[in-house]
Amino acid sequence: MSNTHDPIKHIKFLRQALSQDKKPLGFFLSAGCPLAVNLPKEKWPLIPDVNRLTMFIKDNLKSTTEEKNNFDKLIDEVALSERNTNNIEDILSFIRGLKEVSIGNKVRGFTNEELVILEKNICEKIVSKLDVSLPDKNTPYHKLANWISIDRDKPVEVFTTNYDLLLEEAFEDLSIPYFDGFVGSRQSFFDLRAIEDNLIPKHWTRLWKVHGSINWFQKDNKEVFRSSRTNEIDASHLIYPSHLKYEQSRKMPYLAIIDQLNRFIRQPNSLLIINGYSFNDQHLNDTMINASRANPNSMVIAMLFDNLTYTNDDKDIIERYPEAIELAKKRNNIAIWSYDEAIIGTVRGKWETNEMTNEDNIANCIEKITATSDIEETLLLKLGDFSKFGDFLQELIGYNQTKLDEN
Questions:
Q1: Which domain-ending residue is among 78, 100, 130?
Q2: Following CA atoms 19, 22, 24, 26 in sequence, which dihedral angle do they give, to the nearest 10 degrees?
């Protein structure tokens, strides 16, 4: 007999957990979330995922003649180094690694000056694609921000690997105060003490940008600052999106923010909800699993887009999120909820329930596929779609208000 999980039971648990104002609550948003912003077909997506962004940069920087340019040669060298040529983060990290040792000599056939120009050109293309605005105030980002705006005893913490400014826009549209680690108004500097000693007003949401941001820059002395005047600063000083370990100390943002993710999960009874993340960053995966191992009372729930498996052209069944599956099998306090399956308490099973409900914030995120001659009846839980999750949070506000009125 195959294992099953009751989606109604687990949605009610989630709803109850999100209704507690003293529970440490956090969200982890990644590259899949901007894809959930509704736009006309010809304008979608608002921001591409990493693969599409890399294709955009390649199409714009590759040679238009038979003779290879420096960018083409760079991609060849990235491939020779067995790095992912379809991931702009790997490409940019590779450039920055070469820059560190290229002063006064050529490395892999590139001078330092050529590498500086390549880095600048790539960063300018990234800015052109990511420096966008939300189309209206009814997006999943606004619905998340609206839910966050409710007064709580413990502030909500939002972690994101995205380097766009969509979360900042949603918070500011709704006048929600937030702290991202930087203070100041002209060239905002990173305030490590405020983070480590938690010297932040309780009503401020915490916004932690794990991979940096399009408005973060690095000075010649390696110090990092934030500025809204991106058009006035040399794009080659942008410090995103790269996994390169700079000559980092505790003053650098990345290490401090990863530490904050670790500290959050280690809080008693903490709940971290993940959306839009494909679990392809091993450094972040290690942080999550080590923190959850150190604190068995914490809970991490990853909402995954689409089914947990797919069938390739050879009719083989392929795991869509192998890294996520591996993590969820190791720890009973790391769960993954895909459309058709879940791994909860290390047990993998299909969604199945005998208790259907008309409650909006439950029924609207479940889709029932009627059985046919080719397929059996299936329940799909679609909270892995960030737009559905935003609707769930929006309806939860009304549910919470109703419960308060009843009391």
A1: 130
A2: 40
